[in-house]
Amino acid sequence: MTKAVILAICLSLSGVAHASDVPQAVYDQLNKVMPGYDPATVSKSPIEGMYEFIAQGTVLYISGDGRYVISGDVIEIDTKTNLTKQKQGKITLAAIEQIGEENMVIFGDDKSARTLTIFTDVDCPYCSMMHKEVPRLNEAGIRIRYLLYPRAGVQSPTYAKSVSVWCADDRNEAIGIAKSGGKVESRSCENPVAQHVKLGEMVGVTGTPTLILDDGRVLPGYVPADKLIPIINKKI
User: Fold this and answer.
1) Of 22, 177, 180, 200, which has the fewest CB atoms closer than 10 Å, so is most exposed?
2) What is the pTM of this model?
3) Read out DSSP for the chain?
4) How far, in Å, CA of 119 to CA of 112, rounded?
5) Closest by alpha carbon to 175, among 134, 228, 223?
6) Do residues 40 and 186 touch, judged by C-beta distance below 8 A?
7) 187-190 long-range Cβ contacts below 8 angstroms, 24+ apart
8) pLDDT score of 15
9) End-to-end C-alpha distance for the chain, whole angstroms
10) How far apart are CA 26 and CA 135, in angstroms?
């Protein structure tokens, strides 16, 4: 994720503090312990006396005296809203959009009402099960965007297979063949697979499939269509 993306997100959110509103002690401490953080992301948090900032794509909190950094969720009791996950979701979605849909494998109509982005491993059994749900999801007005995430890493046979899927004449057909255990012709071309892997690592993908809803919610693991559709359509 670029600093420009993070800055754009922060400026778009309410409650962003001006630099003059943030105690110098906060910057002084972050400069010591958080190399690479973007000072433009520091803002007042929902908790009085605490400030939030973004480091390596993650929302963190620091006390006004700069003595404590906290990693965890801030939940608004009255509304039961997880404010941390809400903001983290915006960051994740912005990072995904930076990839560009031309660098994704997409199933469904671009006029679909909802979009589901999935980090997928072509050799993952649960990803194969998830892929079988795609027609039902498409019928329900949900478009699927695949990002290729070989869990074994960029030197693995799964990575090479993912590249072959991307380089196939018909990527949608090839990914279906790969997920069903079939053989995909080995190919090489310019591809975004390494970029997908880097993005997945940055947003905290630890397993596949990882589902990113278009409102920023994250669902780890396989979810059958009959349960997934109402989750996606639920307003939060």
Assistant:
1) 180
2) 0.81
3) --HHHHHHHHHHSTTPPPGGGS-HHHHHHHHHH-TT--GGG-EE-SSTTEEEEEETTEEEEEETTS--EE-S--EETTTTEEHHHHHHHHHHHHHHHHH-GGGSEEES-TT-SEEEEEEE-TT-HHHHHHHHTHHHHHHTTEEEEEEE--TT-TTSHHHHHHHHHHHSSSHHHHHHHHHTT--------S-SHHHHHHHHHHTT--SSSEEEETTS-EEES---HHHHHHHHH---
4) 20
5) 134
6) no
7) 187/163, 188/163, 188/164, 189/163
8) 44
9) 26
10) 50
CA-CA distance, 232 to 219, in Å (whole number)?
Answer: 10
Backbone angles phi, psi at 203, to 5 degrees: -90, 5
Contact 44, 57 (CB under 8 A): no
* Greatest pairwise CA separation for the chain in angstroms: 60
Q: How far is CA 138 from the centre of its chain?
A: 21
For residue 21, the cross-strand partners are: none
Mean pLDDT of the chain: 89
Residue type (1 letter), 20: S
pLDDT for 13 beyond 70: no
Using the structure block, give the residue that is written with the tokens 């997934």. Answer: 228
Q: Is the dihedral of CA 136, 139, 143, 145 positive or negative?
A: positive
Taking the CA atoms of 35, 38, 39 and 41 in sequence, report the sign of the dihedral they define: negative
Residues 144-196: pLDDT tens digits? 999 999 999 999 999 999 999 999 999 999 999 999 999 999 999 999 999 99
Q: Are the CB atoms for 33 and 53 separated by under 8 Å?
A: no
| Residue at token pair 């995430």 | 149
